[in-house]
Amino acid sequence: MEIVKEILFVTIPALLVLLTAYLLIRKTIENDREKRRHEVILESSKTITPVRLQAYERLTLFLERISIESLIMRTNKKGMDARTLHSALLSTIRSEYDHNLAQQIYVSPQAWEVIKIARSNTIKLINTIAEKIPPTATGADFSKNLLEAVMDMDEEPAKIALEFLKKEISRMI
Fold first, then answer.
1. pLDDT tens, position by position, for the chain (173 residues)?
2. Which of 7, 74, 151, 158 could form a disulfide with 63 if both were Cys (CB 3.0 to 4.6 A apart)?
3. pTM
């Protein structure tokens, strides 16, 4: 019986020390893992944040380039008829959009959806005005009707999307 007592007197403190050491080592390892995870996140954010900001910059440029006024200034050539201008405007929007498709990877799904809606609504506006003008209309007539339609709107689709992007960037920074 005394041998059992002596064994217990030696074993119980040894087990307590072993349990304490195990818990301390486990906690240290968990803290080290967490610290490494934070370092990885910090490193990746140093790389990704500039790329994301660049994507927002490119999409801002895209929205500026598909605004009706900008489109007309860049696309309308002297002597163009309305049909040719209509086709050129749609082609320019399509080309600009295709050029910026990859940016959707770096922006939020909501931001990309707003971009797509702005593009779609701009195309709808152009098509609506194109349907309303006579087939013999000049490019200048078409441009004038487009600009008047934009002035009658509360806000142009590209401007709405641009405001959304600005808000999202301010939350990101």
1. 788 888 888 888 889 989 999 999 999 999 999 999 988 878 877 777 888 999 999 999 999 999 999 999 999 998 899 999 999 999 999 999 999 999 999 999 999 999 999 999 999 999 999 999 998 999 999 999 999 999 999 899 999 999 999 999 988 77
2. 158
3. 0.76
Q: What is each CA distance from 137 to 6, 79, 80, 129, 141, in whole angstroms?
A: 109, 11, 10, 11, 6
Q: Enter the tokens of residue 38.
A: 């934070």
Could you tell me the residue range of the domain that residue 106 belongs to?
49-172
What is the distance between the terminal CA atoms of the chain, rounded to a whole angstrom?
72
Residue 122 lies in a domain: yes
Residue 38 belongs to some domain of the structure: no
Question: Cα–Cα distance between 90 and 94 in angstroms, integer?
Answer: 6
Backbone angles phi, psi at 76, to 5 degrees: -70, 125
Domain membership flag for residue 165 = yes
